[in-house]
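>> received
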Amino acid sequence: MRLFASVATAALLLGACAQQPPAPGGREVLPGSDLQVSGFLGDYRGFTRVPDQPDAWQWVRPGVSWRQYNKVFIPPVEVWLNPSAQYLGIQPDLYKQMTDTFRTLTAQEFRTGGYEVVDKPGPGVLKLRYALTGVTPERPGITPLDLLPIKMAVDATRAATGTDKTVIVVSGEVDARDGVTDERLYAEVAVRRDYHLFLGKQLTWDDLRNGATNWAKLSRERLDRARGVQR
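>> returned
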């Protein structure tokens, strides 16, 4: 199943929409949904749904000359906890391993696609800031090595009504910025869902690796299209 895409094509130049009202607790909800944003991106005004991706919302700056971006810089990935989680403890070494894995796989995909991955912003560089959001920690215990102490974030309202047995596996937010001006060019919020009710399932390392690989592939392919590159 696809996870997220992260870089817009030039064709997806969408108009702004009204800012959504704050959700309970002060967080905004995205257009046409009850999905609350994490706050990682800061400004969520003008987000609209991504065509053909019902669980993704994006903002695109009009008039971007995407072809100039043949290098990418990927700062350390951030983890934002689900504020509704009952257990908020974290294991720093584990979370670093998670974010390092995500970043490594993303960089690998861009290199394979012909992009230079650099260690600082600059001319011709697209700065990609990623965050895993809605992360719901699980109290540590004796668990198999392939499991992460993280649960799926469940859409509790829909699950309770029985009308939508959707479980949100993981969500993420990303923005793409110019390597010189640091101007935001694109931003996206997306979720990955499993279309069955599977409460309490913990994520595995394979879930994380597969998700990172899929997200990075979609990111690279969309940047290719925006730049008019055919492979």
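>> DSSP finds three helices and eleven strands in the chain.
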